[in-house]
Amino acid sequence: MFDKTQKVLVVSAHAADYVWRAGGTIAKYIKNGAQVKVIVLSCGVRGESNDLWKQPGQTEETVLETRKAESKAAAECLGITDIEFWDYQDYFMDLDDQARIDRMATAIRTFAPYHIITHGELDLLNPDHDAVNKFVFKASVLAISNGVKIDGTATSKQTRIFGFEPHQPEICNFKPEVIIDITETMDQKKEAMNCFKAQSHLIEYYTERAFMRGNHARRLSGNQTCKFAETFTRRFPYVGDWLI
User: Fold this and answer.
1) Which helix (H) or strand (E) holds 36?
2) CA–CA separation, 53 vs 62, rounded Å?
3) Residue 222, Cβ neighbours under 10 Å: how many?
4) How does pLDDT run along the chain (244 residues), one tens digit per residue?
């Protein structure tokens, strides 16, 4: 059952990942009254901006500015008002530094999310995504540990962690464990995806992916009104009083 008091933290490796992989779900939570926070660890200047680098006269500064502007515009399309850019370098993203892990643990304790959505456990073609998966899990463990003292924060409760569907699921051993109907927010997702001119080749791909996952959702649920969907993995088993 939907509970708008259950806050959602989304941790995205790069400027557009949260849109491609969870834009419809994010918009749906916000549309229905939940509080959502997005943290973008890197704008993907080195490895996620190939189309921009083909243009003459580009520098790291201009690419960063463009990518951040695209991400902010996309966030607005989804209804996101709480978004942070940590501006770490991508390809390869160094997230083993204890100060960075503590920063994420602090963010988890401060925001106190019920759900975290981030990258799943295997993305064969993108090492940054795998690094973020491990990074967020490490930070979540510190956040819930009473013996870990972080100034100005209180220990948070155990958080449910969900993993994005990777770009090439067939070669990443990806199996959907949660399918979310995003039919009501698919237009917002399309609008958000169209903000990313630096990766325009992905817009059609993720539109078709949402359509295909919608077909899976209809087949598995019997709900014929579901036209578009997004899928996720669960880090931990579902716990409840009944099978749902």
Assistant:
1) strand 36-40
2) 10
3) 8
4) 789 999 999 999 999 999 999 999 999 999 999 999 999 999 999 999 988 999 999 999 999 999 999 999 999 999 999 999 999 999 999 999 999 999 999 999 999 999 999 999 999 999 999 999 999 999 999 999 999 999 899 999 999 999 999 999 999 999 999 999 999 999 999 999 999 988 888 999 999 999 999 999 999 999 999 999 999 999 999 999 998 7
Task: State phi, psi for 6 to the nearest 5 degrees.
Answer: -85, 95
Amino acid at 105: A
Q: Please tell me the distance from the alpha carbon of residue 196 to that of residue 123, in angstroms, as a whole number.
A: 21
Cα separation of 132 and 117, whole Å? 11
Tokens of residue 37, six digits: 């926070």
What span, in angstroms and rounded, lies between the C-alpha atoms of 83 and 72?
Answer: 8
What angle, rounded to 10 degrees, do the helices at 60-78 and 17-31 form?
30
Supply the pTM of this predicted model: 0.97
Residue type, 205: Y
